[in-house]
Design goal:
Shape: globular
Number of helices: 17
CATH class of the largest domain: Alpha Beta
Distance between the termini: 89 Å
Helix content: 40-55%
Radius of gyration: 29 Å
Structural class: alpha/beta
CATH superfamily of the largest domain: Vaccinia Virus protein VP39
Oligomer: single chain
Strand order of the largest sheet: 3-2-1-6-7-9-8-10-12-11
Strand content: 5-15%
CATH topology of the largest domain: Rossmann fold
Largest sheet: 10 strands, mixed
Amino acid sequence: MAKITQKDINDAVWKACDTFRGSIDPSVYKDYVLTMLFLKYLSDVHDDKMEEYLKKYNGDTERAKRAIQHERFVVPENSHFKFLYEHRNEANIGELINIALTDLEEANRDKLYSEDGAGIFQNIDFNNSKLGEPKDKNQRLKTLLIDFNSEKLDLRPSHVGGADIIGGAYEFLIANFASDAGKKAGEFYTPNEVSTLLAKLTQSKPGSRICDPTCGSGSLLIKAGTEVGSDNFSLYGQEANGSTWALAVMNMFLHGFDNATIRWGDTIRNPKLKEGDVLMKFDTVVANPPFSLDKWGKVEDKDGDKTTVSYDPESDKYNRFWRGVPPKSKGDWAFISHMIETLNEHGKAGVVVPHGVLFRGSSEGKIRQKTIEENLLEAVIGLPANLFFGTGIPAAIMVFNKAKASEHVLFIDASQHFESAKNQNKLRESDIEHIVSTYRAFAKGKMKPGIVEEKYSYVATFKEVEENDFNLNIPRYVDTFEEEAEVDIAAVQKEIDKLEGDLENVQAEINQYLTQLAK
């Protein structure tokens, strides 16, 4: 039997979405399709392993069943995809799938539960009225099970032609859902090209601890890990949205990163990545936090509301905001402050920000000034507009480095370097390489202050930044002004005279016609 390819599986899982397309919003149905992919994968891996053990023990089913209980995942009989497929015509199929997922969580508590006791499937309900009236819902679920029973979705490792094809299919789905989901997409996905750029700018060495404190579905974190070039690294993430946290956990398993630590919770109000009572430190921190998040900080206890924990950044017990507390309506510098405080002594952070972060004043200006005075800011990179899902505004990347080679700051204006697409602009490989090679040359101390490349990059001294009142607005450093062509006044006047003459002739002709019509 031919091995399944990435295109085969991508086409098959995308076809499975037809069950919901047109009647249910992608931001809703993505969770159902991705959960089914995860369940099918675990079931197929279980079958492959069972076959191996049956061969090993000469068909002794009991011995094989005992052995498989010690495998990576335990799959109870009623949680197996085949069981659900066989019961696809049942009137309570939605309930059967819910039970299957609950039992799968229980059988793998150490992997599929958060440290707070929340299961990754707790926010997904296959018996939900969102899927339509009972009859429509049952038909949709039946069709979904039939689609996933396709030969092209045989996900057994012995049948899949490449170790990362399953993870690739998951990423393919998430990217396509993001494209369809509009504004809501920014909550769970960073475009692939931006993730690649951030991962290359912060490239981690073997042995690194890598963190994304606002990890979404985990794609950026996985890219940062892959960029290491070996298996010697550890991944850590935290995500505030429960459904998105579940996607990230599944994403890690589907990519084979079983030891990744993904926590659920608000990174600012309740950071979960800790060692004892102190924040865990990392070699690399990457993030695409929510842009200018409102009401990110202070919360008061509400009587009877146990979900709201009181918090005040002014008295943050981890002292993350000692440089200053950002305004309550814009949380950008809150996330940046958290990232910097979780870097170890030689750590590096890369963060996507809206341009206002570079120049807004007041408390943000003071925090920005202090980070520059500490010599933490290494580079500011302006990106093209319309790169991100849910917003057309141009963004920038800021790179912070605890072990900078100089006191200078690199500015890159890459805003005009992209491929224009119908719905969204894209960074090309050559655009990414241009940014990365410029940054790496600077990081190695190979650039002197001044213009590096006309209308593209500039190295500013600390004094220059200081003279600009610590305003990092890129046009202050990279001159992209295009001189207009000199106007030939005599030629323009000659052209105007000719046009006026032509106009007189046309007017005379019109008058002639009007006179004839009046007769």
